[in-house]
Amino acid sequence: MMKRIQLLSVLFILIMTSCSDSEEAATLSSEKQIISFEITGYRTEIKGSKITIYVNPSSDVQGKVTPIVEVSKNANFSMDFGNISIENEDKIIVTAEDGSTAEYITTPVFENGIKEINVLYTQEMDGETITGRYWEN
Length: 137
Prior knowledge:
Blueprint: H1 2-18, H2 21-27, E1 34-38, E2 43-47, E3 50-55, E4 64-65, E5 68-71, E6 76-78, E7 84-85, E8 90-95, E9 101-110, E10 117-125, E11 128-136
Parallel strand pairs: 3-9
Antiparallel strand pairs: 1-5, 2-3, 4-7, 6-8, 8-9, 10-11
């Protein structure tokens, strides 16, 4: 019985030492890329490590939103409370399978809306033509 335990112990040690850490590390992926980034109701664009969120002037800007994020295979991502700010810059950390990380910055860009309305009009009253201009800022 004692010889069996010794034999099993030796086999266990041989098995455990045959798999070195360097062999396992070589098979882990270092991919840590955001492949797609979407927010319902907003147009987004990824360029390098910068994600631009275009905020339409008619949008009801909320403080935080939850994006739909797709990252490299076997990678994970994290952001504060699973949300990002739609009013200020924020960051997303992508962690590769090998433990290396990449940081992405989200930047909102507020698109311009209508700044001024100009209306030129012509009206005929009692045989006389009246023209005018209406504007509003």
